[in-house]
Amino acid sequence: MKIKSLELTHFCHFNKFECSFGNTVTRLYGINGGGKTTIGLTSIWAAIKGISERGGTGSVCGERFRFIADGSKKAEVSIKIYDSKADDEITITNCITKKSNNIKIQSKKGRNLDKTFLDDLFSGIFLSAKSFTALSGKEQAAAIGINTEDIDKQIKEEKEIVSIINSEIKLLGDTEIVKAVEKVDISTLLLKLDTVQRFNADIDKALTQIQIEESKLAAVKEKTNDCHRKITALNKELYDLSKEKNRINDTLEKFKTLKKKIDSSELKEQLNSASQINEQFVRYEAYIKQRNRKEGLMLKKEDKKKQIGILAEERIKYLQQKGLENKEYTIDDEGVLLYKDRPIREPYFSKGELEVILTELFLLNDYALKFRFIDDFDLLDKENESKIIKMLIDKGFQVVISQVNKDATATDLVIEEVAFNELGE
Predict the structure, then answer these.
(1) Which of 1, 102, 105, 258 could form a disulfide with 95 if both were Cys (CB 3.0 to 4.6 A apart)?
(2) What b/e sequence results for 311-349 when a residue is b if at least 16 CB atoms lie within 10 Å of its CB, and e otherwise?
(3) What tens digit of pLDDT does each residue of 378-414 get?
(4) How much is the pTM?
């Protein structure tokens, strides 16, 4: 679609104004403040999108009364557009009062065109590089239909968790390896030692008893020898002593089965080393706990990194779906649109570079009206002048350029269609 003509009534400082636009390049030539921007940018934007104080829904931002000429109650902006696909002429008229916009669409063929048609025509911020670069980086991203706020928030939350995990891992420090030992049950050892000691005490008593009994046996033997000498007189006593001897022998026979004393030195040694071993066991348990905690944190960290990677891939696919396949265009973590990692505005890019960038971004959106206004065209160097205009024409744009007449005495605003090879003249 191309704009054929523009008509202004009581709009800004134009009481009555009409002009036509060329199919390719139209030049507006006049002094500063002569109305070039009003004709090439503001009026077209206002006709299609309207005017509001907050600039909502893509409208021109401003108080409506400021666009109405002094002494008038309303202003009117009307543009005629030729739709080559439908072979139809469309007239869009906005009657502007202090309170409202009244936009009407009339098709020469009688087609029913509504607000959707206006929305699909174009976005006002793409009319000129100056309008686009006046936006914040986030607003620029939104202008090309990109909003990464939700996924960026998720990525930020996952990164914060990874940061917390790294802090915990750092606090754990280097994990010193502790040799594994089994915990010693001191109470069991003490019980065993007590049993052995009581058993040994019984053996000691038995040995004492043996000594006593052996002592008695020696006395009996001595008396027996004496009795043999006195056998006749001491038969009865011999009988008694023999009986006693037999008893003693029986007792001694019982003690022949007496076991040896148990060596308790090993248990005592185990008890002595138990505290040291148990201290090492406590250190080993702490080491295992710390190691498991650290391994758990590392696994959690890796899981979060994978999640961040997945979200990042989703973000890339989303941007590709929105047309940002050129890797030089990116959206940073704050949702700001960047080109070659720089904000899209001066002084990061020259005016010529910004005009090229804006054209590329414009083409990401399938707007029907490919119209561009290049203000301060004089500021472009000759190489960029030709390069930008050729690129726009090749892409099917209708271009309006603004050039300043430096003659302060001049009052006329010149509007003329120019050929590509006449731009430098």
Answers:
(1) 102
(2) beeebeeebeebbbeeeebbbeeebbbbbeeebbbeeeb
(3) 888 777 788 888 888 988 899 999 988 887 677 788 9
(4) 0.66
